[in-house]
Design goal:
By secondary structure, this protein is of the alpha+beta class.
Length: about 160
């Protein structure tokens, strides 16, 4: 019994060790490069910005301004999520570093979402989630990048990138 317990402990330790590695070798497709995207805002993007800024105004926070460089990162990430078929924060470190390099960002935060069909529903969902709401209500962020992209089935993927300049 003692041997079985020790074997199980070693197995669990190895699984944790290998599954949580920070230095994993990721291959990032060139298609993921945000330089490959032009920023074109859709009406839903402006609505998301409006709902977020209305919420921030109720808290006496400054409105966020659109930042095209952050929107390019958001667009690129939406296409990545569509290709993967799942919502994620994969490669956030890359988007953050790109914004530090491009616009001297001091802070970068991100909200993602999937499957909502209008701006109000996705913003409401983010406000109902502690972590997402904290990003929206962060008094230090000054700008936002927005992308709302739908897949071939018409389902939207959303990425908002909050930036402090």
């Amino acid at each position: 019994m003692k041997n079985l317990s020790l074997t199980f402990t070693v197995l669990v330790f190895n699984l944790l060790l290998f599954s949580c590695s920070v230095e994993e070798d990721y291959s990032i497709s060139e298609a993921y490069n945000s330089d490959n995207f032009n920023v074109v805002y859709e009406p839903i993007d402006y609505e998301i910005l409006e709902f977020i800024n209305i919420h921030r105004a109720m808290l006496n926070l400054q409105p966020l301004e659109l930042l095209n460089e952050a929107s390019k990162e958001a667009i690129s990430h939406n296409y990545y999520m569509i290709d993967e078929g799942t919502v994620s924060h994969d490669f956030f470190f890359l988007r953050s570093q790109n914004l530090i390099d491009a616009v001297d960002a001091k802070k970068v935060l991100e909200n993602v979402g999937f499957g909502f069909y209008n701006a109000q529903s996705v913003v409401d969902a983010w406000l109902d989630s502690d972590g997402h709401r904290q990003n929206i209500e962060n008094p230090n962020v000054t700008n936002i990048g927005i992308s709302s992209t739908h897949d071939e089935n018409g389902k939207y993927y959303f990425t908002n990138i909050f930036v402090k300049l």
